[in-house]
Specification:
Helices cover 56% and strands 0% of the residues. The protein is mostly helical. 0% of the residues are buried.
Length: 95
């Protein structure tokens, strides 16, 4: 035999639980941290690897020659070229 108080909880709508804010933070604030880490992590790794690769001389026509370390020589060479400064000027003009 069922008691009347055993049947009443089936008739009620389920209780809705809501998250409480911890220290006034937005409930989804933890997502911003993980998304930011993913963006900065992948972008940062790409920038670091690109900079490291720019310190080597790469000859794609003859890869068997190797990739000798030239340091900042690639940058010094680029800064001496007028085409580089024209490209920088055009970039700043259009942005």
């Amino acid at each position: 035999m069922a008691f009347s108080h055993d049947l009443h909880h089936y008739d009620r709508a389920p209780r809705v639980y809501r998250r409480t804010r911890v220290f006034g933070a937005h409930p989804r604030a933890h997502h911003a941290g993980s998304d930011g880490f993913a963006v900065v992590g992948t972008g940062g790794l790409s920038l670091i690897s690109s900079f490291i690769l720019s310190l080597y001389r790469v000859n794609l026509a003859n890869p068997e020659q190797g990739q000798p370390f030239v340091g900042l020589g690639n940058y010094l060479f680029a800064f001496q070229q007028p085409e580089f400064w024209y490209a920088v000027q055009r970039t700043f003009y259009f942005t």
